[in-house]
Amino acid sequence: MIRAYKFLMRPTAGQQVALGEMLRDHCSLYNGALQERRDAWRHVSKTSVQYGMQSAQLKEIRAFDPECQGRWSFSSQQATLRRLAKAFAAFFRRVKSGDTPGYPRFRGMNRFDTVEFPEDGDGCRWDSTPHDPVTRVRFQGVGHVKVNQHRPLTGKVKTITVKREGKRWYVILTAEQAQPEPKPKTGSTAGIDMGLTHFLADSSGGFVENPRHGRKVAAKLGAAQQALARCERRSNRRKKTVRKVADLHRKVRRQRLDHAHKTALDLVRQHDFIAHEDLKIRNMVRAPKAKPDPDHPGSFLPNGAATKAGLNRSVSDAGWGVFLKILHAKAESAGRELIAVDPRNTSRTCPQCGHVGAENRPTQQRFHCVACGHHAHADTVGALNVLRAGLVRRDANPA
């Protein structure tokens, strides 16, 4: 299995300058390759340029510009070109599926923050020796950079990625590991129902509160963004305000990750089998379509966009997608079984008699079956139905 590790780097002042130059030159390579693809399609009878053609030009590019492109790793530059190829592949996939295409855009220096090295030892080397208390990572053209390795790394390092977040620099490693020993069996099963009032409810009647990290800093973030809008471009005040906004976003992101890790770990430790809703979060936070007014051309009818925007913010603030990804990773490492089920009518189906109806849920939190009179918390009912559907899928498809 493949695991990822993210460590904070401690570069010197000179190394920070070199890392910034590395990002700048890779950004220039990315934009140049994008420009070549655009020009070939527009001016050379719609000719499509592929990754292999651009990769073959790297040797000439490095010889022509040895001070910028020539001093960096050849493999990392190939990874940057593959990154562009993936962006075009995603663009054509969206075109075929009828989604909003989103043509690949040119990247400014403030929007190009990562450089990948596809193999340890090719342009970079992870240097973690047992007898040396200081961990370092070496990059071609930068040197040996100190790393704050806050936890042990197991397995063989496969790829190394440099990432800039504000004023901080991180190194992200992917390591290939053997499948770990599964945790001892507990004999417990659980279904979970995701929500906004409560972050989740389980089938045994327990709840995990929604911390709402984004809402807590919404006032500070709004004030910082308003101050940013009033700043003059390329001014020192604007740079400071940009860092302040980025720091607030980073704080919220780290709080969400911390809460997701702790919640997922508790579930994995307590239960052998976990069923959850197969949520289509991207569809849930999609803005409503405009409703043209047939009586007044050019005008539109109310479509509830303001209310939906508030709901979308709450869904995004809860961080369901990040939590489910972490839950899947921890369940795989612990040898637990995790199944996603169809969420339709899970909170409208009576667990006692099986009656399905919207009238069974008179309020957001209250469930009262009109057929048999069963009443309970609506989220608990949803979690119980999710668990039952998950057990049915497991029994229907034995391993």
Q: How many distinct beta strands? A: 16
Shape: globular
Fraction of residues in H or I helices? 40-55%
- Count of separate DSSP helical elements: 11
CATH architecture of the largest domain: 2-Layer Sandwich
Q: pLDDT average, as an integer? A: 92
Q: What can be said about the biggest beta sheet?
A: 7 strands, antiparallel
Query: In angstroms, what separates the terminal alpha carbons?
Result: 19 Å
Number of domains: 2
CATH topology of the largest domain: Nucleotidyltransferase, domain 5
- Given as residue ranges, the uncertain stretches (5+ residues, pLDDT < 50) are none
* Main β-sheet, spatial strand arrangement: 2-6-7-1-5-4-3
What percent strand?
A: 15-25%
Q: How do the SSEs run, as a string of H and E?
A: EHHHHEEEEEEEEEHHHEHEEHHEEEH
Rg estimate, integer Å: 26 Å
Mind sketching the topology for me?
Elements: E1 2-10, H1 13-43, H2 51-56, H3 58-64, H4 74-97, E2 114-117, E3 124-127, E4 135-139, E5 143-148, E6 156-165, E7 168-176, E8 189-194, E9 198-202, E10 207-209, H5 213-216, H6 218-230, H7 236-270, E11 273-277, H8 281-284, E12 291-292, E13 300-301, H9 305-318, H10 320-334, E14 337-341, E15 366-368, E16 375-377, H11 378-396
Parallel strand pairs: 8-11, 11-14
Antiparallel strand pairs: 1-5, 1-7, 2-6, 3-4, 4-5, 6-7, 8-9, 9-10, 12-13, 15-16
Helix pairs in contact: 1-4, 6-7, 7-10
